[in-house]
């Protein structure tokens, strides 16, 4: 049987009109524009208006993606909506989105924290690769501001609302997701949590009194996890694709903190300008963050057909999800050809990288201690 691939055939985004700047937040909590910019890279974020719902934002992004691909909603075989902020606890927002779009297909909501959309991209891709479906719409939509305590300076400066989507279509050319890794480490489940909105602690008067219906985050714990995971997972998935970090044209990391991205770039020994960032405009839009960055990278001409892109998301769970994607059609990796100068060159560089990586990993605890020591001064 001919091998099938899942091409990224269309993309779309929706960001609410309302802008909340660092200076606006200075008037709400004890913070400063300087602290937020230097510690996170964020300058402003979008917050839903009264006209925006999770479903309406998902539909706007999904419709744009379908238009770009020249497809009608009735062409779609499956809709996946990744989110942590659906319109209602029940029903899944995916069914509202399917109905509002006018699609006639299955739809489900996917929850994997900020990693949800990348999880969805992998699931959608494999639904197509298996031959089950030809066209899958993968949306990430987040009104995360509903779960933010705007009296808590440790979280309210970080998050914003947005939606973004891609449509995947079956292709016989090598394209789309070439390699992936889906990860979860539930031992840190409480590092990023809304304590009182699920079945463990149903809503009650104490939820309101203790403000436990909002996101609580141990930022340092998540920061450490993310700084470790970004470079390590990217290395594994790039290797799995038969590529080297140098072969990646653009990295699209989760937009949670510019310092996490810079640390990842250093550990991968890649220039930081190969890492796309729009965190200054939107903050952390949770599951919409990676697809929104991808759509804007395409709009700005930073990502085009033929390019190889590596994307990584991480967040509540704690979860992470990493992919290497071929945009359009490109050259197959030299790792897959049997005997050639290109393959020998690839193998030599891969071995050198592995040696440097193992030295780097053994020095990492020393480096982390040194950075921590400097910070305390
Ligand atoms: O998508 C979900 C994934 N989430 C993340 O990836 C978040 C990862 N974590 C982070 O990005 C960072 O840990 C934060 C941005 C959340 C915090 O930055 P940090 O450099 O780790 O700061 P910190 O938590 O170590 O706090 C340093 C100081 C503290 O004061 P003391 O104890 O040193 O006196 C905080 O109380 O900064 C204080 N602080 C603030 N000051 C002004 C915390 N938030 C603020 C604020 N404005 N908004």
Walk me through this protein's architecture:
The chain is α/β, with parallel strands linked by helices and 377 residues long. The protein folds into two domains: 331 residues, 3-Layer(aba) Sandwich (Peroxisomal Thiolase, Chain A, domain 1), CATH 3.40.47.10; 39 residues. 39% of the residues lie in helices and 20% in strands. The chain has twelve helices and 13 strands. Strands 1-7-6-4-5 form a five-stranded mixed sheet, sandwiched between helices. A hairpin with a 3-residue loop joins strand 12 and strand 13. The chain is globular. The protein starts with a strand and ends with a helix. Bound molecules: oxa(dethia)-CoA. Oxa(dethia)-CoA binds next to helix 2, helix 6 and helix 8.
Give me some keywords for this one.
single chain, 377 residues, alpha/beta, Peroxisomal Thiolase, Chain A, domain 1, 5-stranded mixed beta sheet, 13 strands, binds oxa(dethia)-CoA
In short:
By secondary structure, the protein is of the alpha/beta class. 39% of the residues lie in helices and 20% in strands.
CATH architectural group of the largest domain: 3-Layer(aba) Sandwich
Spatial sequence of strands, sheet with the most strands:
1-7-6-4-5
Which cofactors or ions or other ligands sit in this model?
oxa(dethia)-CoA
Rg for CA atoms: 21 Å
Instruction: Provide the β-strand percentage band.
Output: 15-25%
CATH level-1 class of the largest domain: Alpha Beta
The CATH homologous superfamily of the largest domain is named: Thiolase/Chalcone synthase
The residue ranges in which pLDDT falls below 50 over 5 or more consecutive positions are none
What is the share of helical residues? 25-40%
Count of DSSP helices? 12
Distance between the termini: 63 Å
**Structure class:** alpha/beta
Number of strands: 13
Could you give a short account of the major beta sheet? 5 strands, mixed
Mean pLDDT: 94
| Silhouette | globular
């Amino acid at each position: 049987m001919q091998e099938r691939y899942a091409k990224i055939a269309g993309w779309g985004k929706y960001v609410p009109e309302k802008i909340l700047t660092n200076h606006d937040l200075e008037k709400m909590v004890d913070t400063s524009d300087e602290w937020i910019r230097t510690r996170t890279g964020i300058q402003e974020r979008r917050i839903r208006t009264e006209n925006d719902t999770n479903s309406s934002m998902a539909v706007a992004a999904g419709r744009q993606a379908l238009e770009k691909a020249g497809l009608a909603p009735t062409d779609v075989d499956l809709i996946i909506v990744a989110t942590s902020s659906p319109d209602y606890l029940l029903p899944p927002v995916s069914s509202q989105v399917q109905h509002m779009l006018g699609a006639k297909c299955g739809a489900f909501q996917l929850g994997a924290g900020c990693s949800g959309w990348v999880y969805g991209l992998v699931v959608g891709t494999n639904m197509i690769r298996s031959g089950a479906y030809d066209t899958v719409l993968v949306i990430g939509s987040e009104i995360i501001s509903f779960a933010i305590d705007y009296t808590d300076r440790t979280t309210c400066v970080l998050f914003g609302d947005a939606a973004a989507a891609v449509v995947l279509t079956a292709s016989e050319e090598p394209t789309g997701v070439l390699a992936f890794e889906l990860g979860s480490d539930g031992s840190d489940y409480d590092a990023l949590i809304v304590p009182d909105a699920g079945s463990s602690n149903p809503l009650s008067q104490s939820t309101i009194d203790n403000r436990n219906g909002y996101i609580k985050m141990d930022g340092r714990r998540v920061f450490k996890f993310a700084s470790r995971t970004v470079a390590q997972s990217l290395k594994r998935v790039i290797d799995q694709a038969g590529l080297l970090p140098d072969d990646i044209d653009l990295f699209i990391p989760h937009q949670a903190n510019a310092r996490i991205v810079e640390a990842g770039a250093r550990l991968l020994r890649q220039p930081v300008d190969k890492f796309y960032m729009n965190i200054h405009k939107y903050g952390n839009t949770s599951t919409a963050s990676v697809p929104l960055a991808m759509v804007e990278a395409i709009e700005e001409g930073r990502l085009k057909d033929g390019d190889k892109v590596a994307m990584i998301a991480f967040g509540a769970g704690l979860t992470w999800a990493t992919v290497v994607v071929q945009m359009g059609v490109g050259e197959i990796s030299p790792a897959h050809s049997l005997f050639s100068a290109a393959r020998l060159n690839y193998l030599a560089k891969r071995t050198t990288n592995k040696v440097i990586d193992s030295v780097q990993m053994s020095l990492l605890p020393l480096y982390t201690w040194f950075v921590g020591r400097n910070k305390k001064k």
